[in-house]
Amino acid sequence: MRAAVRKRGRWWALPWFHLSRLERHELKWLFVGLGACILMFVFINLAGKVTEGDTLAFDTKILRALRSPVDPGRPIGPPWVENVLLDLTAVGGSTVLWLMVTAVVGFMLLQTRYRTALFVLLTALSGELLNAGMKALFNRPRPSIVPHLRDAFSTSFPSGHAMESAIVYLTLGAILMRVAETRLTKIYILALAILLTFLVGVSRVYLGVHYPTDVIGGWIVGFMWASVCWLASQRFETIDEEKAKAE
Q1: Which residues sit opposite 75 in a β-bridge?
Q2: CA atoms within 13 A on the CB side of 85
Q3: Taking a C-beta distance cutoff of 8 angstroms, is the pair 163, 127 a contact?
Q4: CA-CA distance, 11 to 30, in Å (whole number)?
Q5: CA 175/CA 203 separation, integer angstroms
């Protein structure tokens, strides 16, 4: 009787355990692909509203809310907040991101993880190209509503800092999650990658160099591109495993 109860209590888990490893991989690809399609739809909708100027009132309200009503050049909060966010925005800059990518690629090469090193490098490079292409496509001017607290030279939509930090930190987080042994550690790594991406985006709005919708668009594309690259890497790994078994 107890065995029957235990068996009935685990009925929901049986279909998953009965799937082969390849079938479980296929389901993961399906879910990630579906998520990427949803993000693409959301981004296209957001980009359309940005292009038509429908988000300008929202963007203006947020930027002005983060500045002193008396002096728009002075952000709200104590002076140290500005210094902290200046440091945080550098975490999403090209210099810091490429230093991290170079360090990780070098480490992977030394560990003879050549495929992983190539994956990290190609993901970061493709993110740079995607960012440049999308900025040229939309060509949205930088905000002029409040003074910039940091120099910015390229166009505004989508935010390159938000996009590239999402791509790099989520990719590195995915690699670390593969070697993490406990579920709690995996959750910690994922949460840390998301937190870094979030703080970089917030810093861009606080410093007045991006509209909030620029950052939201950068996050969406960054999450989507990181997911697509992860999906591709998983596919190639599965093919390699199948070839190794066949040999």
Answers
A1: 67
A2: 22
A3: yes
A4: 23
A5: 26
Q: Which of 145, 175, 166, 146 is nearest to 224 (CA)?
A: 166
d(CA 247, CA 235): 19
Cis amide linkage into residue 147, ω under 30° from 0: no
d(CA 131, CA 158): 8
Residue 218: helix, strand or coil by DSSP? Answer: helix
- Rounded CA Rg of the chain: 22
Domain ranges of the chain: 20-246
**What is the pTM assigned to this prediction?**
0.83
Q: What whole-number distance in Å separates Cα of residue 168 and Cα of residue 174?
A: 10
d(CA 134, CA 120): 21
**Number of Cβ atoms within 10 Å of the Cβ of 139:** 11
Task: Tell me the pLDDT tens digit for each residue of 59-112.
Answer: 999 999 999 888 888 999 898 999 999 999 999 999 999 999 999 999 999 988
Q: Are 44 and 224 in contact (CB under 8 A)?
A: no
Report residue 224 as tokens: 């989507």
